[in-house]
Specification:
Two copies of one chain form a homodimer. In chain A, the strands form four sheets. Chain A has a seven-stranded mixed beta sheet with strand order 2-8-7-6-5-3-4, sandwiched between helices. In chain A, helix 2 (about 45-65) runs parallel beside helix 8. In chain A, about 40% of the residues lie in helices and about 15% in strands. In chain A, about 60% of the residues are buried. The first copy, chain A, has twelve helices and 15 strands. Chains A and B meet through helix 1, helix 2, helix 3, helix 4 and helix 8 of A and helix 1, helix 2, helix 3, helix 4 and helix 8 of B.
Chain lengths: ~375, ~375
């Protein structure tokens, strides 16, 4: 008798999350009920408008802002681009200066580099060995022409929580608006735009059990942006395009659930992550934690097995879905930009594994995952001898 | 015994369409099966990638291009902005010139005006009384610095089919790329990018029975664009953001259905539109057709009842969902930019009604709609005497 195929274990929730069944249930009827054009005054339009605004209210509630401060977008990348490009007049880019950090998502770093190509000043702040931005460096980087500081709330690889509150305080003193890419934080930890003091905040639906194709942008009342997508006057003129009431409702429901389950999820996810970390450190010699032990997303474990390729580890455990932190080709290693920015040596970073726990995992799964990884590392190390 | 409430009649398919049940059926299982991140090499990612590429193949098939020439976007507005802004370096906008027409959708006109604000040259071509662009005017407008001609394939109000093929031929002779906003044409009439000779073509999912929140952009092989959304390398570097396999599959299925039903739908929809037109012209004195009789989308009827406010006509027939072509406030009339560009007098344009037939309508419905409109107009005219 052959053993049944083992069920897969998904530990890549920072990559993307499945759609929560309750989110799906909230969206399903709306495909048929709220398909109207929210800009139309007829009954189908009004029904769609209602669902759209209900979704907006729920997103606002999770973030602690007014519904009128929420703009729906197609996702985190669009939200980030809207802010970065929306604060600079590209015709006279050299009159502007933007500050960001070396560990941002490409959807912040690449628009920032694009602005620099156009002639804008750009400061990319370094991070320390734990992957943290120094708020003092923000103070030093601010120039009279600085129009934005953009520092993420939680890093997607290390889970490191950045000192956004302190950064906002410093920038605010100088009258400089602050943006934070909160794609990895929203839904995992409490996020309050008031407490953070930010002017702009990006949300990516698919990181918090909403579908792909929807995101949000918090734009503090009184702040303005040049739209990324010009056209008709949807979303108070900040984002053209017929709004999807269905996707907005999906993101709204995901935010409602996140708020409702926040304490419970954080506790459960943290317990699983901590157990996974404990087991791996017990069973894998020389294991290194990338990023901080404290001040980290409760679901994120980013470790390195020195001298062993992360990709080869995962190849040997095909029922475990996780990410690496480096790409190895022939004999060269390309570390992720986050590990590079942290100054992690290639022989350590090459063995990086990112294990990110989520709502659907069980304690049994993380224990099984730890066992599989430890076995696989032993096997690879034996081969090498 | 009171009469049962009449079922509503939706004649606003150029505004938006409901999601086709088959499109919904194609998407439903994918929310659970294809939720992975298409950039991830793990099983959930591969499954999502597969659905994404299948969707892309179907969109490409409808348009007659290679799948690699299709970029998924969040909708028509994003597709249009991607082209308009993607061909101009905003840091030296004055070295660029763009040609468009006065009857484009705001998602073309407003990005074009934004480019002009940055310093780019902009020619907005007039239209004739039928709402048609003269290809000869394109020839005259081309300058050495012209980098784009953007003329829509079918107008959303009049349904007028623009001479895009001739415009492409003229522009191509001068080496100028051509974009067409085909949001209103795709799914309603055969659209072939080869025959049209265009370099860029925009598709809006929700105009062809796919959900809102998804669109596509055809980018001819060899043409390049600066991305509107910078970030990770999705969509061959042309559009960052985690792709929604579900939405792509929805748009793909909508395109497959459109191709399959094209002949049948065109015939049925045209018969209903023609009947509606015939009945209205029979029963409403002085009715005016806005736009051309021939060379028009088969589903579109844009008429004016001179001297009567379109909005007041629709107010009196609350179970008929349609659009107007003007907004009346106090004693002043603001015509749509399309009617204005056509030189329609305010006293005629104020009474504009856009009636756009779709897949779900029946001949009985259009006959009922004609009766309701005619009765309502009679009522309003009586009041005025």
């Amino acid at each position: 008798m052959s053993k049944p195929a083992p069920s897969p274990i998904y530990l890549d929730h920072n990559g993307t999350t499945p759609v929560d069944p309750a989110v799906l249930a909230a969206m399903q009827p709306l495909f048929e009920e709220a398909w109207g054009n929210p800009s139309s005054p007829s009954a189908p339009g009004l029904r769609a408008r209602e669902a759209l605004e209900a979704g907006r209210g729920r997103v606002a509630r999770l973030l602690g802002c007014e519904p009128s401060e929420i703009v729906f977008t197609s996702g985190g990348s669009e939200s980030n681009n809207t802010v970065l490009k929306g604060v600079v007049n590209p015709a006279e880019a050299s009159r502007y200066h933007v500050i960001t950090s070396s560990i941002e998502h490409p959807a912040v770093l690449n628009p920032a580099l694009y602005l620099a190509e156009l002639g804008a000043g750009l400061t990319v702040l370094p991070v320390d060995g734990q992957g943290l931005v120094d708020p003092g460096a923000v103070r030093e980087a601010i120039e009279p022409r600085t129009v934005l500081v953009s520092v993420m709330l939680a890093n997607n690889e290390t889970g490191a929580l950045q000192p956004v509150r302190e950064i906002s305080r410093i920038a605010r003193e100088r009258g400089v608006p602050v943006h934070t890419d909160a794609a990895q934080a929203v839904g995992k930890i409490p996020v309050d735009v008031g407490g953070l003091g930010v002017d702009f905040l990006s949300v990516a639906g698919h990181k918090l059990y909403a579908p792909k194709g929807v995101g949000a942008l918090f734009v503090r009342k009184g702040r303005s942006l040049t739209p990324l997508i010009h056209g008709a006057a949807q979303e108070r003129g900040l984002r053209a395009g017929t709004e999807s009431a269905v996707l907005a409702a999906g993101l709204g429901e995901a935010c409602r659930i996140a708020a409702e389950r926040m304490d419970r999820d954080m506790k459960a996810v943290r317990a699983m992550r901590d157990r996974l970390q404990e087991l791996l450190f017990e069973s894998v010699d020389g294991l290194v934690l990338n990023g901080p032990q404290e001040g980290r997303l409760p679901n994120t474990l980013f470790v390195s097995v020195p001298g062993v390729e992360g990709g080869r580890i995962l190849e040997g455990v095909p029922t475990l879905y996780a990410s690496t932190g480096a790409a190895c080709h022939d004999r060269s290693v390309t570390l992720s930009h986050v590990l590079s920015a942290m100054g992690v040596p290639p022989e350590v970073g090459m063995g990086a594994l990112r294990l990110t726990v989520g709502r659907s995992n069980s304690m049994g799964q993380v224990e099984e995952a730890a066992r599989m990884i430890a076995d696989r590392v032993r096997e690879l190390r034996k081969e090498e001898r």
